[in-house]
């Protein structure tokens, strides 16, 4: 191979590009490696910031919960002389503590309300004594009963104590817990302790599984140390005062932050060996990738150059063998492309001047014209009388299941088969694929139309034998068309072939017959269909659909009419699902029936598709109807059971552990009514029952159904019923049959 050949030039060009890219990668790698250590320390700083933010937010959240307990209206009632009131107060506090502890995001083991008087306390297990709880339920060597008694004498508002191991009465470990103590600013005889699960908090807040994290109190005493962390040196490195992001000492990096809420110091220790190890691993990985990229690039360059050069050489050899003229030389050595260009131009010039007969047979002339205006027969004009036939291919599901290459091969075969069948009887015929699923045949002949019918009959018999793969529709007006533009004739044939019916057989259409004036559901049956769908009655809905399709088929509806009706049913069903808050994303994407509707070739396929879709939609609507919403159910049950109390949205939201505004929006979205509307509806219903079956005074009825103000009751009653309570009672009495005395079931106030 010559040094200045096209192959050498191609390969040199590829290698030059590779060298440029390699230089860029080497420079990028060098820059990245130099900044890698800084990126690692920056990432560690960001990780520590995230950990501190999460811990401080956690302590602040727990602090707010404890402050809320200090304002609980039953906090001091446990010592009430009335034991029933005292017991009720204790029970309410226990329930509140349990409600708070159920929030898994707080990582609470327990909340303990400690009273100085009698060393009484309340926690999630109920009332207890200090000596009992910290000896049996929460035993710890670091935090015994005496430690907790001394807390009353210490002066602070909030304190986080060091994590310690706690054990229960069976001496089984509970875990490492961090005591978080909050004192009241108004009552020195009460403080509340939150026992926080130290390991769960660390697992949730740290994105580094083996991080060496230390929490240190303001007095430099350790509060928490992660499992992977080693003990800090007795004297911390200088500079850990918040002025610098990190300090390097003792072959380790110390990252420091101080919490704004607790005043705790957070120290993240990263051994220098870890950072060096990360850099070494990245160094090896990048080096391997660089070498691999270089090898692959050179290999591909050689391969592509050979693949490109080989056909060029074949073209040159072909020109050298077949050219009738002396070959023109290349512009220079190795300029193969110039050699090919010059000699092909010489060949074309010789061909144009060779004096070929410009007269072409009609068929060849029309083939050239039609090929140049593919799918635009309206631009053509016939110079001889002709018959026109338009074929439409409707592929079945079995055909569409074939591989794409097999489908293309079969479509080409069908086109060639029709073309050959026409040419056997009519040698001057032209058959062209004018649309994806349509063929056009022009028959230039003086033969009788019966000869055309014989060809069409043979085609019908052939295609009927392959009905499992495709159906053929032929549009043919049995008359000889005059020479001239063929656009109008083609338009009529195209409209004719569009009148195909959804039948599993070859159809030959010879005229534009009338279409049914009305296709689809009568209004009453359409209303019945969507009512059954809304009720989730898929079986009944599909039966109505099949009945409608069978009726349309008997009335002679075309395939396009039936598909249009089916699309309307699908669209209205999707709209019905959306109105019922059913998730329709899959129906509009993965499970959309619209692509399959376009491919339905028979009535059976259309029925099967609509049957699947309608049953799916009915099932989804039925599932939605049967869904139970726990929040709505809780609210409505509470209203029905406690409508006669001073019931408020705030109280219900508090029991749900949600905000009132969220519950209000949620109820409105799910039921369409506000909370107050639901409450007034139940109250007015109960009031109507009392007014209709008793003589209880209106004022007393208002109180019984939960209204404090009788005026508000009367106004609301009239707003809902249109009558005042007194007028409603009179109307009820007048509606009862006269019994000669007081109405049955009434009692006198």
Automatic annotation (TrEMBL):
Residues 629-731 form the HTH araC/xylS-type domain. It holds the Pfam family HTH_18. Gene3D superfamilies: Homeodomain-like (1.10.10.60). It comes from the Bacteria. SMART domains: HTH_ARAC. This is Helix-turn-helix domain-containing protein. Keywords: DNA-binding, Membrane, Transcription, Transcription regulation, Transmembrane, Transmembrane helix. The chain crosses the membrane at residues 282-309. PROSITE patterns: HTH_ARAC_FAMILY_1, HTH_ARAC_FAMILY_2.
